[in-house]
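G., the chain you wanted modeled:
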Amino acid sequence: MNDSSWGAPQTGPGYWGPADQDRGPAGPAYGQGPSYDQGHAPAGPAYERHAVEETRPMPIVPDMPDVPAGGGDHQDDRGAARLSGPLFRDEATPQAERPAPSSQTPQEPMTGAAPDSQPEPQPQPQQKKSAGRDLGAAIGVGVGLGAVIIASLFIVKAVFVGVIAVAVVVGLWELTSRLDERKGIKAPLVPLAVGGAAMVVAGYVRGPEGAWVAMALTALAVLVWRMTEPPDGYLKDVTAGVFAAFYVPFLATFVAMMLTADDGAWRVLTFLILTVVSDTGAYAIGWRFGKHKLAPRISPGKTREGLFGAVLFAMVAGVLCMQFLIDDGTWWQGLVIGACVAASATLGDLGESMIKRDLGIKDMGTLLPGHGGIMDRLDSLLPTAPVVWLLLVLFVGSA
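Predicted structure as tokens:
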């Protein structure tokens, strides 16, 4: 192959001789010098066209063995830069005659070539499981609430009814406030608070009939109260109001109705113990062994193992409570009540988790450090109250 543009042999830093036709220009000027047109010598002081006096054949260099990337002798001609890039056209040299790429020239990795050694990623240290709350504050608040409840429960029953009514009013305030803040739903709080407190007292004084009558009157009061405002959003506001009246005060009246029995204080204590033990068992077993999600779309933290722990703990507590706290109670009744409490408490917890997820909040309030709000403590108690009240009435009667 001849190239008429190759000049006579010259010397100097700009010389491009036959021995170098398979490698790029050496030195720091590579990739920075003037452009090179195919078939002509590069322009510059050492390559003026009028100085070209003769042509000479370009020798064909046989294929060289490949030099592994990053290996070989850097002084060897086979490691020189290939004639490609902005200074040289690839088509100037046939594919078969192109030398192996230099270890000093950046290049794309070839298929099948050994990848560059990369440091192996260090394993991340396993994070310890966290309860997600301030356990110290949660335990302190829980003990304080328990002391107030126990004292009012066994000293004067009427005081405990007042504690239930206060919890209901605060819970209604939290629920209606979150509905207004997150959804713009304005459930009327005044008729709900007055009707809710009256509902608890009516359930304690008049039993189920009093509770149902108070519930109906509260719903009617919500419908009328909302009429004093513009009609926009009336339907969603009164619907949320009736739901709140049923969800918080009506379910809480079953705790007051338990209290009317001769051993009412022990029935209420059994109800509280079983619910707390169920939650504790679910947390303890789920935190230690939980792997399979129970309802990931509603509450990602709950697991099937936690539900098993809730059932196990509640059944054991049910046997003990029915055997030693409830008059005429038997151990097998404790098994039934324990299993039902675990189910209702879990469903109640999931129900409020669904509400909070719809509202886009973590807690209903911040009144109780380490717990959230009152509603965050009533979530499993409210739906469990009618279950325990009914089972105790069936097993040992209402007197």
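The first helix runs from residue 135 to 155.

Shout if anything looks off.
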